[in-house]
Amino acid sequence: MSARERPLGESEIWLEGAPRAARVPGERLAVVLCYPAAYPLGMSNLGFHSALAAFLQQDGVRCERAFLDPGREGRSLESGAPLSSFDVVAFSTSFEPDFLALASLLDAGGVPLWADGRATDDPFVVMGGICAGLNPEPVAPFLDAVLVGDAPALVPAFVDALAGGSSEGRAATLERLARLPGVYVPSLYGVERDARGRVTGFTACSGAPLPVVGAWGSPRPVVSHVLSDDAYFRNTFLVELYRGCGRGCRFCAAGHVYRQRRAHPAAEIEEAVRAALPHTRRVGLVTAALADHPEIRGLLRTLRDMGAEVSISSVRADSVDRELAGLLIDSGVRTVTIAPETGAEDLRRIIGKPTTDAAVIEAARWLGEAGARRLKLYFMVGLPGERDDDVDAISGLVKEARGEFTGGRPGARVSVSASAFVPKPRTPFQWARMADEGAIRSAIRRLRRDLEGRLGVEFTSVGPREASREAVLARAGRELAPAIAAAAIDGVPWKAALRRAGIDPVEAGRARDEDEILPWEIVDVGVSKSKLLASYREARSLIDERKGGTTSPTRPPP
Question: For 158, which of 97, 152, 301, 399 is 20 to 30 Å away at the CA?
């Protein structure tokens, strides 16, 4: 068998100190942790690693893994057992399209899809990850419980409660789970709606709390526990540098859900990296705001001196100077991602990311002079308040940044990615309208023409259909579950599945009323609705000012 043909997981290295359990004598609970995407993506996701470690650290718990890989759907990686044979089927969800894969995996694994159709011997199906805190409602009818918050803060009590209720009936066990901090049991809650189908209120029974308040707490950096040649970040040790983000960009869910900021001490990060270096030199620093870490420059010097080859997720343009650029490249970084989001400065102020064009261009120059090989630039189209000339301005900004970055260097490359803005729960733009597919398609077509045709840069984009689907999944309630089931299991095309469920995608993409009760408010993740609304109103005021003509100049296309 060649290296390429080896079974998934055969190349894995479990790091020293990483909890690992196979068959546990006298086991209390058998758990299969599912990532609703392919193995390479799952094993490159720190949230999945955190959940895996949390389960394996519990006495008497056997935890296997499952992914959405061809020929293996519905079975665990370790033993090949079907999902239906486990006590708990747990999902770690990071993106709304994961909801369809969640349904598909349950069906492939022989687990009844609808929670109210499960018998006493069926597994308990639970979901965690950031989607559990953003909006679990579209898949709530499929779930016995939702774990809202951080795995280290949730899993120990969850395991004890579930294992301790093995002699009780299913309903009594669910009531026991609902009393735990951060555990949402959808079957104990009702959703009231008006004639238009909009939420008017919630009800709770059996003493279940309303709303369900998330449980947070992960005092040490989240790290990789397993290295794999088959992971998307091949043989890379990932370590969380900074928990949360204080920037508060109006479109960013992670920047609001994780507003409790904490920079992990450099000494803890260095300790974790030192333990991994005997197995790999590749170290990925994961954070929403790299340069916001107060010790980042000293940390990069230390990692460089330790012999680590560092990679980073992204860096804000306004935090890059000559010193930081040099440190990044000296530490092994070869590709740097910057996300200007749009080509117009005043539109950046509207979306809460007031980075100047000059900062983007200067960052490109510093990185190019330091020796970076590739610069990735991320943009969005369909933003609130966007005009046609904002889309055209992206090309002008890319042209200038490309010139400064490449500087005539052979092999230096610039790539551009464009995606559609999707209104996300827990953000100031959760009330905003989703742009229609035609406008998104037109904007992407113009960018492709200008960037590929005139500038010769690499260009990728997320299509309007995918973005429209994500927007529906992000803000819907329980009414969407039948459409998810039809699309994921019966193979019904998405829009046909929506029609079958009586859902109008145009209505789903509409702007929400400010006084409207939103489906995800059944869960409280500590984000102040009044503060979000104040920020949204400020953005709308800036949009009105812009319409009045008080705008900054827009650079012409190349």
Answer: 97
| CB neighbour class for 66 (10 Å; exposed up to 12, middle 13-18, buried from 19) | buried
At 109 the three-state DSSP class reads: coil
Q: Find out whether the peptide bond into 211 is cis, omega within 30 degrees of 0.
A: yes
Nearest-angstrom CA–CA distance, 276 and 273:
5
Parse the chain into domains and list their residue ranges.
Answer: 3-213, 236-471+528-547
Q: Indicate the length of the chain as a whole number.
A: 558
Residues 6+ apart with CB under 8 A from 90: 31, 32, 33, 34, 51, 55, 125, 126, 127, 128
Instruction: Indicate the angle between helix axes 481-489 and 98-108, nearest 10 degrees.
Output: 60
Q: What is the pLDDT of residues 75-97, one digit of tens each?
A: 999 999 999 999 999 999 999 99
Report the interhelical angle of 464-475 vs 437-448 (nearest 10°). 140
Q: Please report which residue ranges of 418-528 form alpha helices under DSSP H.
A: 437-448, 464-475, 481-489, 494-500, 505-508
CB 56 within 8 A of CB 92: no
Q: Does the pTM of the predicted model rise above 0.85?
A: yes
User: What is residue 31's three-state secondary structure?
Assistant: strand
* C-alpha distances in Å from residue 414, one per residue of 216, 403, 404, 499, 555: 39, 10, 11, 42, 19
| Reported confidence tier of residue 23, pLDDT bands at 50, 70, 90 | low
Grouping H, G, I as helix, E, B as strand and the rest as coil, residue 331 is: coil
Read off the amino acid at residue 367.
L
Q: Where are the alpha helices (DSSP H) in 296-356?
A: 296-306, 322-330, 345-350
Question: Token pair of 283, please?
Answer: 């170290």
- The CATH label, of 3.10.180.10, 2.102.10.10, 3.40.50.970, 3.20.20.70, for the domain at 236-471+528-547 is 3.20.20.70
Please give the C-alpha separations between residue 344 and each of 339, 386, 519, in angstroms, as whole numbers: 13, 9, 33
Read off the pLDDT of residues 142-186 as tens digits, 9 standing for 90 and up. Answer: 999 999 999 999 999 999 999 876 667 899 999 999 999 999 999
Extract the runs of DSSP E, i.e. beta strands, from 443-511: 458-461
pLDDT digits (tens, 9 = 90+) for 222-248: 999 999 999 999 999 999 998 778 788
pLDDT above 70 for 8? no
CA 249, 252, 253, 259 torsion: positive or negative? negative
Kindly tell me the burial class for residue 307, based on how many C-beta atoms sit within 10 Å of its own C-beta (0-12, 13-18, 19 or more). exposed
Please state whether beta strands 242-243 and 262-263 pair in parallel, antiparallel, or not at all (unpaired).
Answer: antiparallel
pLDDT-derived band at 549 (thresholds 50, 70, 90) equals low
Residue type, 460: T
- Per DSSP, what are the bridge partners of residue 311? 284
- pLDDT at position 506 is 84
Could you give the CA distance from residue 242 to residue 316 in angstroms, rounded to a whole number? 14
Retrieve residue 323's tokens.
Answer: 């010193």
Contact 324, 273 (CB under 8 A): no
Q: Is CATH 3.30.70.240 the right assignment for the domain spanning 3-213?
A: no
pLDDT digits (tens, 9 = 90+) for 311-352: 998 999 999 999 999 999 999 999 999 999 999 999 999 999
User: What span, in angstroms and rounded, lies between the C-alpha atoms of 211 and 201?
Assistant: 11
